[in-house]
Amino acid sequence: MRKLLSFLFCLTIVTTALAQTPSVIPLYAGLVPDSKPSKVQETIVNEKGKIRISNVVQPTLTVYRAAPDKANGTAVIICPGGGYARLAVDHEGYDVAKRFNEMGITAFVLKYRLPNAQSQTDKSIAPLLDAQQAIRLVRQRAKEFGINQARVGLMGFSAGGHLASTAGTHFARPVGDTKDQTSVRPDFLMLLYPVISFSDSLMHAGSRNNLIGEKPTVEQTRQYSNELQVSGQTPPTFLVHAQDDATVPVQNSLVFYEACLKHKVPVEMHLYPKGGHGFGMNNATTKDNWTDRLQNWLDAAGWLAK
C-alpha cells in the first residue's frame, strides 16, 4: 500500500510538471496565409536580459497549461507588444502566462507576424489574421488543452493591445478567405497600456506607420482606430494604463473606456499616476499589483470558477 501511494504521489508530481512545461505549436497546419516567398528571417535578440523577436515568418503559440489541480477551463491568448516592429515575449508574454497559470488559467503566448511587405501580400492584415487564427485553434482544440471553448480571452500589451482590441472589435467579418466558421470573437479582453487610436492626436506613430503606412487613407485610419469600432457586441474589457505614459498617451485607454460605456459594454479601468510605458506586470512606482486587480475582475465575472 505504501509503495502504491508513493507511486501515485510521484505520478502526480510528474503530471503537474508536464502540465507546466510550455510547448510550442504552429499556428497554421499548412501554408501560412497572406505570405509570399522572401529572404526575411526571424531574428531573436537579447536586449539587456530581455528577449525581443522580429521578422516573424512562422507564427506560433507557446502553451502554458494550468496544473490539473488548479485548472478551471479558462484560456487566455497573450499578444506581446513592440510597436508592430518586434515582440517583447518575456515580460509581456511568458512571465504573464505563468501568472495566469497561478489563477488556474491555461495561457497561450502568440508569436504573431509583424507587418512586412517583403514577406506578406497585405501587411495590414497579417497580425489580425494570426490573432483570429489563434482564437480558432484554441477553440478547436479545447478538449486537448482542457479548456472551455466558450471561455477564451485575449490580452494585449501596447501594440499587442491594438491587435487585441482590433480582434475584439472586428470579429464579425474575419480577415482572409478561410471558410472556417469557428467564432473569432474573444469572450473577454484585457488591454495593458494599449495603442487604441490611429488618429493624428492619439496615435503611436511607429505602430500606425508599421501597420498601415506613413500616409494612410482616412478610411484606413478610421478602420484601425478601435475606439470607433466598439459595439454592443464588444467583449467585456479590463484596462490598465499610466498617466505619465509618454509613448502611448493614456487617452488611448480613456477613449476605449468611454466607447464601452456608450455601448453598455462591461468595462473596468485602472489608471496609475506614474509608471511610464512597458512596465509589464510590475509597475515599480506603486505597491499595488494590477494583476491582483485583474484576478479580482476575472473572479467576479466567473472566469475563475471550475
Give short descriptive properties of this protein.
306 residues, alpha/beta, Rossmann fold, 9 helices, 10 strands, globular
Structure description:
There is one protein chain. The protein is of the alpha/beta class and about 300 residues long. It has one domain (about 20-30, about 40-300): Alpha/Beta hydrolase fold, catalytic domain (Rossmann fold, 3-Layer(aba) Sandwich). Helices cover about 30% and strands about 15% of the residues. The protein is built from nine helices and ten strands. It has an eight-stranded mixed β-sheet with strand order 1-4-6-5-7-8-9-10, with helices on both faces. Strands 2-3 form a two-stranded antiparallel sheet. Strand 7, helix 5 (about 160-165) and strand 8 form a beta-alpha-beta unit. Helix 3 (about 125-140) crosses helix 5 (about 160-165). The longest helix is centred in the first third of the chain and has 19 residues, at about 1-20. The radius of gyration is 19 Å and the shape is globular. The two termini are about 30 Å apart. About 45% of the residues are buried. Residues about 10-15 have low confidence and may be disordered.
Q: What oligomeric state best describes the polypeptide chains here?
A: single chain
Q: Output the helix-strand order.
A: HEEEEEHEHHEHEHHEHEH
Spatial ordering of strands, largest sheet: 1-4-6-5-7-8-9-10
- Strand percentage: 15-25%
Which helices and strands appear, and what pairs or packs with what?
Blueprint: H1 2-20, E1 23-26, E2 43-47, E3 50-54, E4 60-64, E5 75-79, H2 90-102, E6 106-111, H3 126-140, H4 142-145, E7 152-157, H5 159-167, E8 188-192, H6 205-212, H7 218-223, E9 237-242, H8 251-262, E10 267-272, H9 290-301
Parallel strand pairs: 5-6, 5-7, 7-8, 8-9, 9-10
Antiparallel strand pairs: 1-4, 2-3, 4-6
Helix pairs in contact: 3-5
